[in-house]
Amino acid sequence: MSDTATRAEALKQQDGALAHIAYVLRSNPVTLLAFAMFAVLLLAAVLGPLIAPFDPLQTNASNALQPPSFTHWFGTDNLGRDVFSRVIVATRLDLAISIAAVALSFLVGSVLGSLAGYWGGWLDAVLNRVFDTIMAFPLFVLAMGIVAALGNTVENIVYATAVINIPFYARLVRAEVNIRRDAGFAQAAKLAGNSDVRVLALHIFPNALPPMMVQVSLNLGWAILNAAGLSFIGLGVRPPTAEWGIMVAEGANFIVSGEWWLAIFPGLALMFAVFTFNLLGDGLRDIVDPRQRS
Amino acid sequence: MAGRLSTIGTRIAQSIPVILGVVVVSFVLTRALPGDPAVYFAGAAADEASIAEVRTALGLDKPLPEQFLIYARDVATGNLGQSLSTGQPVLEDLANRLPASLELTLTALMLSCAVAIPLGVLAATRPGSAVDHLCRVLVTAGVSLPTFFTGVVLIYIFYYLLGIAPSPLGRLDFIYIEPDRITGFYLIDAALAGDWETWVGALKQLVLPAVTLALFTMAPLARMTRAAMLSALSSDYIRTARAAGLTEDKVLFTYAFRNALLPVITTLGMVFSFTLGANVLVEKVFAWPGIGSYAVEALVVSDYAAVQGFVLAMALLFVALNLVIDLTYTLIDPRIGFETK
């Protein structure tokens, strides 16, 4: 009997949350637009090679440096490759790098932040110092240094981007966990016989998830910029792989002679992705924490 | 006054562990080279004997803590190793190229402050107006702009289409003669030498890269100025000041703006960190001969000593800058104390 009552309660609560999301989306069409843009990105990333009209690596010297036309929407590059296909196919790699990096920093940051926030003590002090040190570097420069030290590969771009993002997540989780360490519900869970780890993981940590999601979304945009920047200066992704940063870098050589489509289209794709994640982050913040709305 | 001096002393003391941390990280980075660092530092053409020689010379045969002490001593005496590609000491290379980077970065920051802060103030005093919307668009678009892409677009528009910008190749067109090196800042050196033709030439080269960097840094600054001004304007002391019949200008600039400056300056420190990173990209786009493009060139040829020296130098520069920013706090707002941290 009471079981059905709680279920109905839970259902109603979920309904409330859904209604709240629907309300926020209706009142803020920009967030809806952000979700739509995100869907486009996902589609391009998942379907990539299937929807690209040409092989992104197929060179054709007789058809090089053609301006945008009906067959080649974004024109062709100096080797005659179709820029439109390359831009589409690159979506998967760019998203994969940034999502992998953000997931990694989310994971490591959550664990470290939870430990520091729950137990405090010397661990907290040491981690705090470590994060201070990481933040003392200009972050892009530190990422360059890490990639240079570990070796010039795509995985290392992911690790470097993850490392420079970890402090943001760890600090956020630490603060959220710390204020709830001695909260009533945490003590009740402990009295009910749950172990410290269980209380931390199942009762306290989930409270940090909403602000974390906002951070993730804002961070994704930044991670894409960072990864594209690194490959722009020749780190990580190697030609002829299609990737937005490297395409802008290659196209930049032709911009002074007026072949604008080589660099502009991948750059626009990059901007579109970053803009989507930033809009999404702002929208999520409105849903999660309406007080912070700017 | 004594209180303020001790505040400053505490702040300076606080930066020591950070500097130590930076040196440790940079040590770890130099030792984390894949494989044997001695092989890398010995160069491609090294044989067994010369690798062993390099190993002894670099102290790589010693235990790790001792290696760290040697590294720390080297850093303290300014020995960052030799660059493989230029054959010069890394510190000398960096010092030679630093003025070019600083000239670009500082010009960009001044430009961006000159636009973003008034824009933020105007947006905050006229919420909902056209200026407010402009500010909002700039803020949202600005954070999504990849610097290297903005640079490429600006080159296309102003160099190729309009033909008003000089070719994006370095600090000075070859038709001008480099001014005598006094500060290393071409604008200052040319002005000191009274060579206004070169001054204009240098300025022309500087405009596009500086605007590129400035566009990138404007967004966070404008956003923070607007937010800080809004919160200052809605506070009790502003209401009191208005009720006391002070003029709007006095309320705005003496009371609100001065209080809004603190978070803006914090943001400026953060923005500087971004700028040091973005500098690398902008320097590559415009072939600007600063330390950023030096690091990129070094990366391409696996010149590790140069790259790590660059990373360390940037970090120390940034720590120093944060110190300066925190110290200016005490000048702007004497209430700030660091003991509470």
If you compute it from the alpha carbons, what radius of gyration of chain A comes out, rounded to the nearest whole angstrom? 23 Å
**Helix count of chain A?**
11
Shape of chain A: globular
The secondary-structure element order of chain B is HHHHHHHHHHHHH
- The count of strands of chain A amounts to 0
Give helix % range of chain A. over 70%
CATH superfamily placement of chain A: MetI-like
Largest sheet of chain A: none
Q: Terminal Cα separation of chain B, in Å?
A: 21 Å
Helix content of chain B: over 70%
CATH homologous superfamily classification of the largest domain in chain B: MetI-like
CATH class of the largest domain in chain B: Mainly Alpha
Class from secondary-structure proportions of chain B: mainly alpha
Which tags fit this structure?
heterodimer, A: 294 residues, mainly alpha, MetI-like fold, 11 helices, B: 341 residues, 2 domains, 13 helices, 75% helix, 0% strand, membrane (chain B)
